[in-house]
Design goal:
The structure is a homodimer. In chain A, helix 1 (12-23) crosses helix 2 and helix 2 packs across helix 3. In chain A, the strands form two sheets. A three-stranded mixed beta sheet of chain A has the order 4-3-5. In chain A, strand 1 and strand 2 (72-76) form a beta hairpin. Helices cover 40% and strands 23% of the residues of chain A. Chain A is an alpha+beta fold. The first copy, chain A, has five helices and five strands, in the order αααββββαβα. The first copy, chain A, has helices at 12-23, 30-39, 46-59, 99-111, 128-132, and strands at residues 62-66, 72-76, 83-87, 93-96, 115-126. The N and C termini of chain A lie far apart (55 Å). At the A-B interface, helix 4 and strand 5 of A face helix 4 and strand 5 of B. Chain A binds a DNA duplex through residues 1, 5-14, 29-31, 43-48, 50-51, 54, 69-72.
Chain lengths: 134, 134
DNA sequence: TGATTGTCGAGAATGATTCTCATACTCTAG
DNA sequence: CTAGAGTATGAGAATCATTCTCGACAATCA
């Protein structure tokens, strides 16, 4: 079995994880997704949620970010390269992209003799709705 | 006791953690620092290493980044705002700063109605030494 | 020196994530 | 449609980094 052959079967559990992700409006942990599935009466094992998320992350179908305690958060995202602007209060996330940043990253990398550079970038702030509600 | 009053005492253990950090040429985990202290014959508890690192991180004296498995890596850094360009093979880290990125982040944030925006950015690549050695 | 109070250390506890392995299910060839 | 092969699942154990607990110790200061 090669890597490209795994994760191809369509099961009730995988569809459930996908739909839970699509209902979520912000980044969610595996545990939260598992809980929301249980709450709606869909029985899916926690390990399966983790496996599904990992496979989707590997395939690039979901984005993974980590908070400052190292917990992983998942979100269904567009497939092109982008970054996130996340509200620190409500968790709402906006996809943003910045050619300027990509160019800057490449330039900095080559100036320092680095090659094959990838980058991770997240913006965290307070969205207007949350700022207004205080 | 207020926050400003904690972490003021000078102890052998704290000095040891600081010196271990200064000897390290790249980002290190708490476990690695603990091990290097033990290796040189300095007895310091693991919990103390964690506590010292956390306090320094809170004070802004060290930078913390996380790898893709969520483990925390620490490094003694300059105190002004900056980012890192890290070699994925040898772990060597270069501090970089980019006014362009800061401005872009602020602009994107305000365009989307976000305020109080902070950002995290890391560049990962292969340094020239490692690229040459292959 | 003695009192006060922060700090240490060993090991237990925590919590997210991964692993194990017996069982159930998908998919496809026939 | 059906059996067979091989993948996927689930419950709970295992892992592993990190944090907590609490009695003992040490830094600071009068």
């Amino acid at each position: 079995m090669t890597d490209s052959e795994v994760g191809t079967r369509s099961t009730r559990q995988r569809q459930a994880v996908v739909s839970a992700l699509e209902e979520a409006t912000s980044f969610s942990t595996a545990q939260e997704l598992h809980e929301s599935l249980r709450a709606r009466g869909t029985k899916v094992g926690l390990a399966t949620v983790y496996r599904s998320l990992q496979r989707m992350a590997d395939a690039g179908d979901v984005d993974v970010i980590r908070n400052d305690t190292g917990e992983a958060f998942y979100r269904r995202c567009s497939s092109h390269h982008h970054h996130h602007l996340i509200c620190r209060e409500c968790g709402r996330a906006v996809e943003v992209s910045g050619p300027a940043v990509e160019e800057w990253a490449d330039r900095i990398a080559s100036e320092n003799g680095f090659s094959d550079v990838s980058h991770s970038l997240e913006l965290v702030g307070t969205c207007n709705a949350c700022a207004a509600g205080r």
